[in-house]
């Protein structure tokens, strides 16, 4: 899992994931660790009756660029609506447990804004798009402004989301 975490962070910020040396005291650290034990403890503590998408860690990489690591638990009974981020938020999904069908692209059917302050649109489904079955170990990179939707779940699923945030909208945690 740590190898996959480093891979995903390397996709977000080249050079960040591989650096493990200690920085001199007058400079910020060159890497942030999120261990397999941290991830497992976080996921195990998420509620099991609802979809949970919460930050494990948001790292300020350069003062004006952040990367968020999110843990998600999605019960089989709650596949959820399609989502489209109206800001330029790329998401990188890394599947940990379970299997499901993920649809990306296409057209959102009957989209709505979930709240007045939301930066996303939701919809009950997507027409068209690309469907793919994802399972543990799979990585999917979803560019910003791309509709995405779990159209069916074969079981409960757990996955990590890595969100590079060049505009520093993510709150530090």
How would you characterize the overall build of this protein?
The structure is a single chain. The protein has helices spanning 2-12, 36-45; strands at 52-60, 66-74, 82-85, 91-97, 100-104, 107-109, 120-123, 125-127, 130-134, 139-142, 148-153, 157-165. It has 173 residues and is mainly β. It has one domain: Sandwich (Jelly Rolls). The strands form 4 sheets. It has a 5-stranded antiparallel beta sheet, covered by helices on one side. Strand 1 (52-60) and strand 2 (66-74) form a beta hairpin. The two termini are 21 Å apart.
List keywords for this structure.
173 residues; mainly beta; Jelly Rolls; five-stranded antiparallel sheet; three-stranded antiparallel sheet; 2 helices; 12 strands; globular
